[in-house]
């Protein structure tokens, strides 16, 4: 043996499937507890974290999680017990103390809120670590496992913990349900809420207490250090999918629940894998997927939109170039070679031929033995574009005092976005119907018809 | 009868750290008029409104609403903040923003009722924003955003409106809508107080003017107060000795150490 064993692939996969089957049959009561715990925490933390995120107090949850540590250690030192309730109240007290300091410092000293957050966070964390090492070198009974609060240990979750989680989750979700309008009001416009006579301070403290509650029950599962991710990543991911706050909260809760169940499964199938970090990694993957693939604001969609716009611009430019050529030939010849087009418009030959193929497919131009010519439909479109280009040029030179080179540059862009109403508005405000280079502003056949009728 | 005066400001002083922003400002505003607060940049116009509304700490003085402190007259007073102070990316639609105006009347657990919705609907229609009721606020133009804010204030059904630069950076349509709103409000006997920037439009839009530059320069009917002499005083630089000495007083904490007899 050289210390290298072949990877037991088939056996491993079978084992994994087996574990997964057991996991979802809910026969292993311990695994089920972990699942329920993670789900509850994932949902409540992501909903309450959403408000911290929207109020731009994202790091508050992180600071409060760190601030809980010394309270846990003090509670253990004073009572000698590790009951879920004792730990919970210790953590609650010191988190609230931390919140009070974070709130007090910027109001009464020159310290800014971000510095107050950082100072409080590290001070409490240091205090917690100090107490932790003291406990670990002491002779106290059942001290083991306290250090797991740093990174969380879901497998060690007890029925007591779950009961507490159920309570806290219900309280948090119910509070959000009842005070949804008020929470949204103070998140959107705090000062305005004050002028309405709404008790802003009361709701702010209520929100903070809800965050503290979620953070404190999350310690056992994901630990002090990773708690911020559970609060913030779900809403950050949801933000790509919707603009409606209620939908956002539901999505965030869903993301929280999905990643929680993923984390719980993975750590059950591969026992060496920790639950908390896996929840956070799954959340980050969900965030990444949202960032790339979200239907409205995703990176992919934005890229595709941009490419479509670019293609449209190239095609419209070709149509306009063909019209210019037509004009130069006094409308006597309607077939032009690639060379004639590129002489007027600098495009790469590859782009040009590709765009021409697309234009042919749309029946805007047709290919003949002696070159390319505008179809009837293409001619209309080309007239419309040229008209808009020259209208904008005239408008700028008559109203904005720009020289003819500057107006051309601008019109090259504006021609692609002008709509009909804007076009009519320009016509109404124009004094003469020639563009600054002396070229006539073309009219669509229907417009010509209308004018001859009027005469 | 003092309780017929919608807004009375008495010796209001505001400072930022040790710098005096406003010193000893007193004036009162008549009912059923439009009132402009005018002054150069940094004169303390927005701070004055915020101080009146209790949004920024006041070191001295107070404001009375129909003869009562603000706490008793919340429901009769509506405030429109400056547009720049808002996070326009916030996930909320137009209707929900306007409904916020009803929350002063609602108990802490209550949601807006059908009649609240009808009031919000009317407010949106008054400002020609009803068609936009389901739009996200991030998708509105600057002028439309301003109209949503005005509709929200209107939904409060107040009798005194305090607005921080409602005309700043708005389009022609919005400007017309605001003027129309002023007329409607005046016709109901309501009072409008605005921080205003554009000197050219003051006499056209407002009946009454308050000129400030760190202190009160003048207050009164527009045709009497908006004189070249007063404008020179307002825009012709601050009384630097007054400001310097006031700042020195704040720094030395003399105002606390010296017993006021």
TrEMBL record, chain B:
Taxonomy, superkingdom: Bacteria
Keywords, sorted A to Z: ATP-binding, Nucleotide-binding, Transport
Domain ABC transporter intervals: 7-239
One GO MF term attached to the UniProt entry: ATP binding
Keyword Nucleotide-binding on entry: yes
Homology family: Belongs to the ABC transporter superfamily.
Name by which UniProt lists this protein: Metal ABC transporter ATP-binding protein
Originating organism: Thiomicrorhabdus marina
